[in-house]
Amino acid sequence: MIGDSQAQAKFIGDVLKLITGTSFIVIGIVVLVVAAIRRRAAGARAVFLLGLWSAIYGLQRFNDCDFFVELLPHWMQLCIPYSHAVITYFTLVAAAMTFRELTVGKLRLFVTLQALTALLIAVVGIGRFVLTGEEYSLLGLNNLVAAVGAVVLLIVFMVPSLSRQYLVVKDRRVMLVGTIIFGAEALSTNILHPLGYHPDAIWDDLGFFIFIGSLGYVAMRQVYTSERRLSSIENELAIARQLQFAILPTSTPALHNLRIAAVYEPMTAVAGDFYEYLPLDDQRAGFLVADVSGHGVPAALIASMIKVATQSVADHAADPTEFLRRLGEVLSGQLRGQFVSAAYLWIDTESRVARYSAAGHPPLLVWRAAEGALARIESNGPLFGTPCVPDFPTREISFQPADRFLLYTDGLSEPENAAGEAFGDHRIERILREYPSRPAAELSLLLLDAVRAWPPPSTPQQDDITFLIIDVL
User: Which of helix, strand or coil describes residue 436?
Assistant: First the structure.
């Protein structure tokens, strides 16, 4: 009779282990899938580690179920002790890494050290088991590390001032309830086990279930809050992109005997490149191309400043040296550690003379149709934002019908292929030589396509690309 009761109790215990093990594995898989879908959101790593922890916990329940083990093939039964040892030791590692994602400051450092300690214990403990057959030789030390960590985390969660200082949890009350229940259960288990007292596993399962429920709720709140914030930022960037395009020329100036093509390809939603036309009449105009160091919003803000600064010095458009000097003066107090390169070209189609000057910018390329040759015009002063003396020498360039000018930023020449080789100025020059008779608009597309095709297909654009092609008819 007693034997039947024991067998019945054991059978019920095995069934409960199968149910709880299956439940925690399914929960873990679902959480891992959610983490994979939301992998770019803040808090996704905590969700992933929670799913991993839940799956490991469920596997341990299957290992503890004698009924399940007996159904396995013999070779798999031989692996159960090893599986049991690995899961037992690595459960603490998964737990510590999960908690680490919720902490900051000194507490994050403490939990990181706890995770590394648990990992070291796991490696040594599993190694000793493989070599000596002692499955739980370091389990006492493992339990001690777990108990110390549980005490520290309980104290932090229960003291509001410590929670605000060391945790990134928004719903502290929800997390507090789950942590207290799980921490108390884990603490009692790690203290009572070495004393030979083994509480019913159902209490472990219940405590862990409440805990992952609270932790999952908090982690998913962080994920969705992050996504809402990201969505808001993306909407704001879309507006910023529209505003930035609004400061660029909406059309090319109608100039006698000139045809102009402009290409502007930002790397991100907003860019640090800028170009502007400064027409005086139908035969004279200035062309400015600028490149702000860095990318994104800070560079875009400075690019917007260049628009305003350019308009303020437009009276000096016919003198590239004075134009760049005054432009640098206007920008000098606004750059705040960033640098700007610029190239400025003034073209007079009546006299057939162009004037060019630059501030730390790639050279102006000039295709001379009559000679069938390409000239590199370098007339550089210092970058805007450097403490150097602002000296911007001007080069005068005579031109003839069918000649061509190319102003560009370094985003056109710097893309690299799979071997790390830059597209380079020489490839830009080769395209200009190969298609001397193509119209400016068509040539701009050929050049852009060649640059886009140079990096590997999966490589995102690494810099803003801006260039102007100016053809003399």
Answer: coil
Cα 144 to the chain's mean position, in Å? 38
Contact 26, 61 (CB under 8 A): no
Residue with tokens 């193509």: 438
Could you give the residue ranges of the DSSP H alpha helices within 393-473?
Answer: 424-434, 440-453
Phi, psi of 51 (to 5 degrees): -65, -40
Distances, alpha carbon 207 to alpha carbons 136, 181, 200, in Å: 24, 6, 12
How far apart (Å, rounded) are the C-alpha atoms in residues 161 and 157?
Answer: 9
Q: Are 236 and 228 in contact (CB under 8 A)?
A: no
Domain locations along the chain: 2-233, 249-472
With tokens 């009692």, the residue in question is 188
Three-class DSSP category at 385: coil
The first and second tokens of residue 171, run together, are 């719903």
CB burial of residue 195 (10 Å; 0-12, 13-18, 19+): exposed
CATH number of 249-472: 3.60.40.10
- What is the sign, positive or negative, of the torsion defined by CA atoms of 275, 278, 279, 284? negative
Burial class (CB in 10 A: 0-12, 13-18, 19+), 420: exposed
Q: Are 175 and 215 in contact (CB under 8 A)?
A: yes
DSSP 337-401: T--EEEEEEEEETTTTEEEEEEES-PPEEEEETTTTEEEEE--EEPPBTSSS------EEEE--T
| DSSP reduced 3-state for 359 | strand
Q: Which architecture does CATH list for 2-233?
A: Up-down Bundle (1.20)
- Helical pair 2-37 and 201-247, crossing angle rounded to 10 deg: 10
Can you give the pLDDT of all 473 residues of the chain as single tens digits?
445 566 666 666 667 777 777 887 887 888 788 777 766 666 677 778 878 888 887 788 777 776 677 777 777 777 777 887 888 888 888 888 887 887 888 889 998 999 999 999 888 888 888 888 776 778 778 888 887 887 887 788 778 888 788 877 666 666 667 766 766 666 666 555 555 555 565 666 776 777 777 766 776 676 666 667 666 666 766 666 666 666 788 888 888 889 999 999 888 766 788 899 999 999 999 999 999 887 777 777 788 888 888 999 999 999 999 999 999 998 887 777 789 999 999 999 999 999 999 999 999 999 999 898 999 998 888 999 888 878 899 999 999 999 999 999 998 998 888 888 999 888 999 999 999 889 999 999 999 999 999 988 878 888 889 999 999 98
